[in-house]
Write a structure and sequence with these properties.
Layout: H1 14-27, E1 34-39, H2 44-52, E2 56-67, E3 70-80
Antiparallel strand pairs: 1-3, 2-3
């Protein structure tokens, strides 16, 4: 899953609300057993949103994703069906 909020709409709870709704919807699907988020370490607002929604930081994936022309580290957040 992923989310992006335009700068003029940040810090208003929109991402948290959307992530919560998407998470609740996903858990209604019996074939879904795990949800994951990949967040750049510098994106403090995004990883705080993930943590508030109940996602757990599981690790740092070094040089994991290509953004533009460069490879970037990503925190991996996850939530597993209980």
């Amino acid at each position: 899953m992923g989310y992006w909020i335009r700068p003029s709409s940040r810090r208003r709870g929109h991402a948290a609300q959307a992530l919560g709704a998407l998470t609740q919807w996903a858990w209604r699907l019996p074939e879904v057993h795990r949800l994951q988020l990949y967040i750049e370490p510098s994106n403090v607002g995004s990883w705080r949103t993930a943590e508030r929604a109940g996602y757990v930081r599981e690790g740092l994936l070094r040089s994991w994703e290509v953004v533009g022309n460069e490879r970037r580290d990503m925190f991996m957040y996850g939530m597993a069906r209980q």
